[in-house]
Design brief:
Blueprint: H1 3-15, H2 51-63, H3 69-81, H4 87-91, H5 95-102, H6 108-125, H7 132-136, H8 143-153, H9 163-171, H10 181-191, H11 196-212, H12 220-225
The structure holds a DNA duplex (13 and 12 nucleotides).
Amino acid sequence: MNSFMKIYRKLFDSYGPQGWWPLLSVDGTNPTKTGAVQGYHPGDYTYPKDEQQQFEICVGAILTQNTSWTSVEKALINLNKSNALNLKGIKRLSDGKIRERIKVSGYYNQKAKYLKEFIKFYESLQGKVPSREALLEVKGIGPETADSMLLFAFKTKSFIVDSYTKRLFLKLGIIDKKMNYDEIQRFIEESIDDDLTVYQEYHALLVEHAKRFPKGEIDPIISQFKGTSSS
DNA sequence: AACCAGGACGTGA
DNA sequence: TCACGTCATGGT
């Protein structure tokens, strides 16, 4: 087994299924997870169950750019109070109202613009799954946000390479710091199982691990893994 | 009180 | 291509 799958096994054995992506309508918490957030559905990979949940995931993906999920959850709750966590609902809100509702999640001016850009794009989809290239053409959707939407909202295998992922794999010495986003993504995708649930869980586990071991802290996964790789 | 949070964009070299 | 400044609120 290759290094990436070994690390995946180790993380999964340590933390268990994570139940991403969290949804306001899901009445469940994951007790193994750090922080007091709700909406996780560990072991249930049938989400999103409808277009409303799909839309909610996309909105959350934009709002969580460089922002903690606890803040994003508050913004989503604010939007939901205005019945604006769906396409038709959010279209009724004025720009100022959107900014006010999402203010808690930071960067609210540009994120309000990004949301409006995405709304136009989402309408044009007519229920179809977008390509990664099409998503990246939308202002405000970069590689990580695009991959988050693809993987969790549209259930399309596209590995998310976020800062946590780079940090851990760099420390482990299994990627090079000169590699760019697409190169890292390709390398990982060539190494891991061709399985949507593995893609989803792997990213969620990496985030959970990073929350437990912030920068500078001792990381048992690393100390146990180093030197044990045998491709 | 500095630092980080489930990044992306615009600019200039 | 890529390094850097900017965007902003909330929690530790």
